[in-house]
C-alpha cells in the first residue's frame, strides 16, 4: 500500500508518531530510496489532515534516526543506511567496506612528504625535522561519500621504496600497499572517537551543511612489535557512518 493511502488511527499513538512510522516503512520497502525527496510538511498536512507542527515532528523523528536529512531550499532527502564499524578492530577503509559487501573508492586530494607537526611527530615517535608521507583522500562506499581521511606514514619505513602514487592511493588500500611493498602489517593500535560539528572546510569536502554532526576518528596504527606506523584523522559523515560496540 502506498504511504499516502494509509489512514491514521484516532485511538492509537500520537499522529506524528504514526506518520513517522508510515514514512519509515515506505523507506524500508523502497517506495522512497536514497536521494529521493520526501513529501513536504504541506503535503503531509493535506494527506493526513494534521497541523504543520505534527508534520514537522514526524519528519524530525526520521532525521533523528538518520533516515533523512533536511536541506534548506531542497527539502527532506532520504539517506542510505549507515555503515557500522566495530570499535574493537582496526581495519583500513577498503577492508572494512569489502567485508560489508560494499565497493570502496577514493578521491585523492593530495599526497607527498610533509614536515611533521608536533602532534604527528609525537604520535609516530619522530623528530620534529622528519617528513612523513601524507595523503588526503575522500572515502566512498558504493559511490556514496562517507568521509575524509588525512594519513601520515613514518618515513623510515620506506627505505629505497618510493611512496604510493596518487593513482595507487585512488585504486585501493593503503594498508594493503604497506603490506605488499614494505612488508608492514597493521596489527593493532589506538583510536579516539569524538563527535564534532563540521567546519566550513569539512562541510564543503563532505557535502554537508556547516555545523552538521560528524564523527572524528584519531588513530595511531601499529605494527606487530608495537611500532607506530600511521597517524590518521578520519572525519565521517554521521548520517552515513557509525561505530558499534559489542559487549
Automatic annotation (TrEMBL):
Keywords: DNA-binding, Transcription, Transcription regulation. The keyword Secreted does not apply. GO terms for molecular function: DNA binding; DNA-binding transcription factor activity. It comes from Kaistia nematophila. InterPro entries: Bact_HTH_transcr_reg, Chorismate_lyase_/UTRA_dom_sf, Tscrpt_reg_HTH_GntR, UTRA, WH-like_DNA-bd_sf, WH_DNA-bd_sf. GO terms for biological process: negative regulation of DNA-templated transcription. This is GntR family transcriptional regulator. The keyword Transmembrane helix does not apply. SUPFAM superfamilies: Chorismate lyase-like, Winged helix' DNA-binding domain. CDD domains: WHTH_GntR. Residues 13-81 form the HTH gntR-type domain. SMART domains: HTH_GNTR, UTRA.
Amino acid at each position: 500500500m502506498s504511504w499516502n493511502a494509509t489512514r491514521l488511527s484516532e485511538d492509537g499513538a500520537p499522529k506524528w508518531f504514526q506518520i513517522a512510522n508510515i514514512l519509515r516503512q515506505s523507506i524500508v520497502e523502497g517506495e522512497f530510496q536514497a536521494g529521493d525527496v520526501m513529501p513536504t510538511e504541506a503535503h503531509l498536512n493535506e494527506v493526513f489532515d494534521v497541523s504543520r507542527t505534527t508534520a514537522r515532528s514526524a519528519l524530525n523523528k526520521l532525521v533523528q534516526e538518520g533516515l533523512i536529512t533536511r536541506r534548506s531550499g531542497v527539502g527532506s532527502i532520504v539517506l542510505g543506511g549507515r555503515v557500522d564499524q566495530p570499535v574493537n578492530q582496526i581495519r583500513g577503509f577498503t577492508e572494512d567496506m569489502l567485508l560489508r559487501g560494499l565497493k570502496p573508492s577514493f578521491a585523492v586530494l593530495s599526497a607527498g612528504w610533509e614536515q611533521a607537526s608536533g602532534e604527528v611527530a609525537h604520535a609516530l615517535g619522530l623528530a620534529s625535522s622528519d617528513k612523513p608521507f601524507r595523503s588526503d583522500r575522500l572515502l566512498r562506499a558504493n559511490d556514496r561519500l562517507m568521509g575524509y581521511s588525512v594519513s601520515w606514514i613514518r618515513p623510515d619505513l620506506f627505505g629505497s621504496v618510493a611512496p604510493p602514487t596518487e593513482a595507487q592511493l585512488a585504486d585501493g588500500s593503503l594498508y594493503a600497499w604497506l603490506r605488499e611493498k614494505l612488508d608492514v602489517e597493521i596489527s593493532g593500535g589506538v583510536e579516539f572517537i569524538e563527535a564534532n560539528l563540521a567546519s566550513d572546510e569539512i562541510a564543503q569536502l563532505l557535502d554537508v551543511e556547516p555545523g552538521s554532526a560528524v564523527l572524528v576518528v584519531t588513530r595511531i596504527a601499529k605494527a606487530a612489535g608495537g611500532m607506530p606506523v600511521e597517524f590518521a584523522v578520519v572525519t565521517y559523515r554521521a548520517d552515513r557512518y557509525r561505530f558499534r560496540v559489542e559487549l
